[in-house]
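Lab notebook, bench 4. We co-purified these components, and the gel suggests they stay together. Before we commit to crystallization screens, I want a quick structural picture of the whole thing.
Request: model the full complex, all chains together.
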Amino acid sequence: MITLSPEPVMMGGVSARNHLVLAAGVLGTCASSLSRMLRSGAGAVVTKSIGPEPRFGHPGPCLVVLEDGLMNAMGLPNPSKQFQDELSALSGEPVIVSIFGGNPEQFHEVAGWFADKAQAFELNVSCPHASGFGAQIGTNPDIVKACTEAVKEWKKPAWVKLTPNVTDITSIGKAAEEGGADAIVAINTVRAMRISTGMRRPVLGNKYGGLSGKAIFPIAVRCVYELYEACSIPIIGCGGVSCAEDVIEMMMAGAQGVEIGSAIVRDPDIFSHICKDLYAPDGISPREIVGCAHG
Amino acid sequence: MITLSPEPVMMGGVSARNHLVLAAGVLGTCASSLSRMLRSGAGAVVTKSIGPEPRFGHPGPCLVVLEDGLMNAMGLPNPSKQFQDELSALSGEPVIVSIFGGNPEQFHEVAGWFADKAQAFELNVSCPHASGFGAQIGTNPDIVKACTEAVKEWKKPAWVKLTPNVTDITSIGKAAEEGGADAIVAINTVRAMRISTGMRRPVLGNKYGGLSGKAIFPIAVRCVYELYEACSIPIIGCGGVSCAEDVIEMMMAGAQGVEIGSAIVRDPDIFSHICKDLYAPDGISPREIVGCAHG
Amino acid sequence: MAEGLPVTVTITKVVKESPGVTTVFFDREFESCIGQFVMVWVEGTDEIPMALSYKNAITIQRVGDATTRLVAMKPGEKLGIRGPFGNGFRLHGKILAISGGAGTAPLLRVGLECPDVTFLMGARTADELIFHKMLTEKCDVRVATDDGSAGFHGYVAGLLDEISLDEYDTIVVCGPDPMMRSVLSVLQKRSSLEKSQFSMHRYMKCGVGVCGSCCMDPDGLCVCRDGPIFSGLSLQNSELGKYHRNAAGLKEK
Amino acid sequence: MAEGLPVTVTITKVVKESPGVTTVFFDREFESCIGQFVMVWVEGTDEIPMALSYKNAITIQRVGDATTRLVAMKPGEKLGIRGPFGNGFRLHGKILAISGGAGTAPLLRVGLECPDVTFLMGARTADELIFHKMLTEKCDVRVATDDGSAGFHGYVAGLLDEISLDEYDTIVVCGPDPMMRSVLSVLQKRSSLEKSQFSMHRYMKCGVGVCGSCCMDPDGLCVCRDGPIFSGLSLQNSELGKYHRNAAGLKEK
Ligand SMILES: Cc1cc2nc3c(=O)[nH]c(=O)nc-3n(C[C@H](O)[C@H](O)[C@H](O)COP(=O)(O)OP(=O)(O)OC[C@H]3O[C@@H](n4cnc5c(N)ncnc54)[C@H](O)[C@@H]3O)c2cc1C
Ligand SMILES: Cc1cc2nc3c(=O)[nH]c(=O)nc-3n(C[C@H](O)[C@H](O)[C@H](O)COP(=O)(O)OP(=O)(O)OC[C@H]3O[C@@H](n4cnc5c(N)ncnc54)[C@H](O)[C@@H]3O)c2cc1C
Ligand SMILES: Cc1cc2nc3c(=O)[nH]c(=O)nc-3n(C[C@H](O)[C@H](O)[C@H](O)COP(=O)(O)O)c2cc1C
Ligand SMILES: Cc1cc2nc3c(=O)[nH]c(=O)nc-3n(C[C@H](O)[C@H](O)[C@H](O)COP(=O)(O)O)c2cc1C
Ligand code: FES
Ligand code: FES
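Here is the predicted assembly.
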């Protein structure tokens, strides 16, 4: 297998300790769990998505574990502005604050709360199961561009996280790029549903949810590859990454780094385990492989 | 587990021997393999998609087996008009002819070749990896409607098979319904890619392919559920069905029956095995459960 | 980690344990370690964490929407169960069990299944004591009530004064946060933290260590996966008894 | 069924067996039954089915794009391998192997690994005989050439006249369709079909029994999965020697 040389990593304006980033919404609500992920080897962490008002999330069940992935509809629970307190405990760490809103003004407002503490922002325009937010605005290139511009007023690196639930993900990627995004994160979860045949009802409280984990890896690789052909800003691959080989594959598709979420369920120490396999003193430079599958 | 009473099945104008239909493109190029599937328990079979000209398909690799599914880019290889000979050998059998074209005229022409032999047509407006065909027209509601109308001129039942690679599958479902479709089949494969890290190239000859099998089951259930809320014609569920429980789940989401493709790889006798689990003399009527998850 | 969609179970028996507490039995036993919990789906309302009081039952204290629906359920009705989840107690030797209120439920199997158990049980009043009779037949039960209507008049931690902690190999504790913090303080003073295990409660959504809603300060451990059982030592400097986070992640006292 | 993405192998050695046939060795052995095949990915061109002539090699007859690129490859270059796929021969007792042209390659391991083999080998001319020397060291080899430049002058089926079929427990055959049909006819006449196994070739795209491109009439069996080895009995009334389908599914003679 290919190994990478351990070098300082700078991706999308964020200086990270390695190429592996904790994905938004996974153990991301408290400073203590975010620190834990950094200690266990994450190169940077993205927080739970923070919005304009506190939200308690959807009624349960909010998540089910499938054979090859997870399906969740958390409903964007978050402490809103009070998350400032958590962030204080993380000052100096590579923390990207995920934010969401229903329009550019809300994105601007929420970003403002964290402008002095975040290393960067990640715009969640892609959660597939919260009405009025996420993918409901992330399927419209004009709104995505406007939200990106609004957040960029704070002069911080801005990553825009895209939904795969669109006919053409590149049109959204290009909108983010035009809005001044420093990187694109692809992908958020894939809209999905399972039904309990015993209860004769959808298993998630919100009925619809988002599929993540291994099942969506081939979809995520495809999106990264498409975006690499269409856009010129850095891409962070996300979706089903669960081993070092997957990281290399995402990089070859065009990703500068990856985010990892669901794999935590099978292995809470996933970051240190992937690092062990991915890096070696005689490894090659990531530059050699990022996008190399485009030939 | 719920079992169904073995009753005569009529779905979307097709009288089938049970609720399980062989999906298009799977062992569907010769009369002999289609008969074999009927013998081994399929309630009806859909042929390989037939188009206006013979095609040899994409260069290989055309298919890879993944842990939880398949990824393929066959490229719609088909013998075109000569498929008439194969069909002759199947007269009287529950055979649905899958057809594709680049516009309504071509759909009309191809359907005409088989109008006296097919029990029904399935319009492939959803293959995600053949340029000018399939999903390239299946993402446009107006074209889908026009193609459906063109095929309906032959006065045969017409099923329209949809792609999940759209922002809103219900808009396409409604277009098919307006065009006079007798049923909607959901879903075709999900656009995907895997890269060989050893070769540093996408593994499929066509680079992009379609994901099928277990991995996409939650996506297919979601699409069926959405379509059931939006449309009033029958829905046939397709995507990742591999056991009797999956059939029940699809039905609860709103499907009258299911198509099965990739599961053949793990078990060539999948139809008879599912029948054994699905039907029982004291089983309930399918009417009791179709769409019941909508509460 | 148990996996998959919720398993559907049918309720077979409903037993009222006290005015506010009810046990619901179902038609399936879940192989589980004592201390593990399940996520209980009350269709149309919510999914909530519950200890398995028996392998085929949960014992519910009515506090809000989901628990209110649960205690009103009848035999024949259905629930969805995910799990069991979490780590469970490590039980050996002579055991001291200390419970407060509905916290007796997660410890019930300790009293019923282990050979040598002393059970200290607290409740607000005598009629809020649960499983008292059943446990008395199996082990040495001592009672405390806030109003003195049964046993010792005061908090359950007070019962510890009459206990020689050196005699015990394992100490297990479950109850409301303030009760557990005060027990923890006593055990700390009497140098018995090492052999103590506390069954923690935090807001849970996923049950499998991914959503982060049940994380505790300062270590960021997940109660659902790293717990719910924690050694007293590891809780000394924790948020226990000080605050917890609600469904939105907001700190509450 | 072997699974997954193509395994990348590096070519270690290239051996020219005859003017049109080349063996390519790689750095990995594939555990396989004799008769199984792999799908060989020649990046940028195509993926094609090939028997494993050795556990770590394929032997290629140059016929078109992919095979032309393959025979021109150099040590250090890479291939992608999926498989091994298919069923393989059932080999026991005294074995008669009958090959035509490049059909010797899939039978090579029969000659090298089985104890008691008689090998009938046909080719158009003497210099198109492959593996002749190597096999002669291991078994009783008899040769037929169309032009008489070596051995018997005529088709390999002609060699059967001098063979007492009753002596053999297993008969394995591989070669072009017309050659296999004529061998089948001889075996049928001499009531030896039961112990015969034929290695079939059909257009293959998936290799795992799903795409349908390799299906044979009249049973709809997949050569890739139900085969490539079929008993002579099951082929009697088949399309063998009459027609096959090309990549588009069109029948060709
Ligand atoms: C590991 C564990 C085991 C538990 N075992 C038992 C048990 O055996 N018997 C029992 O009666 N109770 C048990 N509980 C507590 C029980 O989960 C809550 O009482 C229940 O969730 C309340 O739900 P509700 O809808 O009735 O109340 P709500 O009105 O929704 O909330 C009332 C209060 O209950 C708590 N709560 C609500 N939802 C949750 C949730 N998803 N996760 C955690 N706490 C929540 C919160 O403190 C909330 O303020 C356990 C909790 C945990 C974490
Ligand atoms: C199970 C099996 C084992 C085989 N083993 C060997 C072997 O050990 N050595 C060897 O030299 N050849 C073997 N072949 C034949 C080999 O696959 C073809 O010669 C090769 O595919 C030709 O590819 P091409 O691109 O060079 O030729 P093309 O120009 O693409 O085609 C030339 C002819 O080759 C055949 N062919 C092409 N592609 C395929 C395909 N995907 N599947 C089957 N046939 C195809 C067709 O008859 C075609 O007309 C085997 C075939 C099968 C089915
Ligand atoms: C429990 C859970 C909560 C999530 N919450 C968020 C969120 O708040 N914001 C967001 O942008 N993505 C969220 N996601 C999506 C993940 O960040 C990620 O995009 C997705 O899970 C795919 O990556 P994975 O397969 O590695 O998990 C969540 C995912 C899960 C499983
Ligand atoms: C090898 C292969 C070939 C296919 N060919 C076609 C086709 O020609 N026309 C079509 O409409 N769908 C085609 N499909 C899609 C299937 O019919 C089906 O929609 C999809 O595979 C999802 O179902 P499954 O998960 O049961 O396989 C093909 C799928 C596979 C795996
Ligand atoms: S409940 Fe989700 S991490 Fe514990
Ligand atoms: S090659 Fe696809 S079925 Fe045999």
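The mean pLDDT of chain A is 96. Worth comparing against the SEC data before the next meeting. Chain A touches chain B through 42 residues (CB under 8 Å).
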